[in-house]
Write a structure and sequence with these properties.
The protein has 256 residues and is mainly alpha-helical. The protein folds into 2 domains: 58 residues, no CATH class; 181 residues, Serine Threonine Protein Phosphatase 5, Tetratricopeptide repeat. Helix content is 77%, strand content 0%.
């Protein structure tokens, strides 16, 4: 769906809106259609369809997702104040909805993706600003929402750790990664969090913020935990990486 002027697309949308009144999947179908319009850059038509869901299914999960998508549009267009207001509304009105943590995570993810876009354009100040905005959104999952979705909460910690790493705040990043491996050892990215702890200690040593020998012990410890606790992860399959890291860490440790 590239244009609201596309007669085939619009005919399908009009049929969807006018028929299937008793179908419980109708709000989701409209929402998915709005998502397709939004993906193609047709934000106006996407918002019209999301507004239709909001007006016809108030208080429903469909309304929650429609508002989330409209907030994603605001973030994409740089309307941060409007997005923040919508986040406030979502947390107030849908606090007991088990899907809310995932919805809020996706809004932080929008900032996270924009940060990398700015990095690729060598716009470092804007990239850092958007990493910080992503952290601020994900912090609300941690501090304001019940842990109804452990995956979304683990995502919030893990990707906040990634943001802190990009910002050069390696101590904070280690703190967040450690929470992930301690609380959710079976989380899909727990192995990555454990490995990234080693990366952070390497950066701390390279920058002179901690002694190389101290970093070496932490790097070895983190790498060995990856080997022991996540034998099926991709980095263990490429075992040479961990072997090299352990070797580097031990060499650094010997240079006191």
């Amino acid at each position: 769906m590239t244009s609201s002027d596309d007669p085939n697309a619009e005919a399908a949308v009009k049929k969807l809106l006018s028929e299937f009144s008793g179908n419980r999947y109708k709000p989701r179908a409209i929402h998915d259609t709005a998502w397709e319009y939004r993906k193609s850059g047709n934000y106006g038509r996407a918002n019209e369809l999301d507004q239709y869901v909001i007006e016809h299914w108030p208080g429903s999960t469909g309304e929650m997702w429609a508002k989330m998508d409209m907030a994603k549009t605001d973030i994409g267009l740089g309307n941060d104040a409007a997005a923040e207001k919508t986040i406030d509304i979502l947390i107030t009105d849908f606090n007991d909805n088990p899907e809310l943590p995932t919805a809020i995570f996706m809004l932080g993810e929008q900032y996270y993706n924009k940060a990398f876009q700015f990095e690729n354009q060598n716009r470092e100040a804007e990239a850092k600003e958007h990493f910080q905005k992503a952290i601020a959104v994900w912090e609300r999952i941690v501090t304001e929402l019940p842990e109804s979705d452990a995956t979304a909460t683990a995502h919030a910690y893990h990707f906040s750790g990634c943001c802190y790493e990009r910002l050069g705040e390696y101590e904070k990043s280690v703190e967040y990664y450690q929470i992930v491996v301690d609380r959710w050892p079976k989380y899909e990215y727990a192995w990555s969090a454990q490995l990234l702890i080693a990366c952070c200690y390497e950066e701390l040593a390279n920058s002179g913020r901690i002694p190389a020998a101290d970093a070496a012990l932490q790097i070895c410890n983190a790498c060995n935990k990856v080997l022991a606790n996540y034998p099926g992860c991709m980095v263990v399959t490429a075992r040479s990486l961990l072997t090299r890291w352990n070797s580097v860490a031990l060499n650094k440790g010997g240079n006191k």
